[in-house]
Amino acid sequence: MKMFQQEVHLKERKRGFHIITQEVLLALPQITQLTTGMCQVFIRHTSASLTINENADPTVRVDFETYFNKAVPENDPGYRHNDEGPDDMPAHLKSSILGSSVLIPIRQGRLALGTWQGIYLCEHRNFGGPRKIVITVWGD
């Protein structure tokens, strides 16, 4: 079994849902050495998250942002944690709902994503700054 790991510093992005599949692939070209394996992508932050979804139609990412803003609104008077602004606590909640990692099978040296699937960086802060992800791949 082979195992590779790389930390990647993603550039700052505006609030929303952004496809980062190519950045993941560029960071670990060793994926091509694996016939069968797994790829885990983990984000090292509590106010951004990762998910896998539609990679073709950008309106899906806009609709994701719309949905999560309705489901987890800012300025809720019940929130106690607001030291960093009205988007802070909602960002933590959205991050927990979506999760901090994705796990993708590797087949024949490629991520076994579906035809219309991509890896999303879900930026939940208005000014989240650069983000760090750790990518680990293992297999045969």
UniProtKB/TrEMBL annotation:
InterPro entries: UPF0047_YjbQ-like, YjbQ-like_sf
Pfam families per UniProt: YjbQ (PF01894)
Gene3D superfamilies registered for this protein in UniProt: YjbQ-like (2.60.120.460)
Homology family: Belongs to the UPF0047 family.
Name assigned to this protein: Secondary thiamine-phosphate synthase enzyme YjbQ
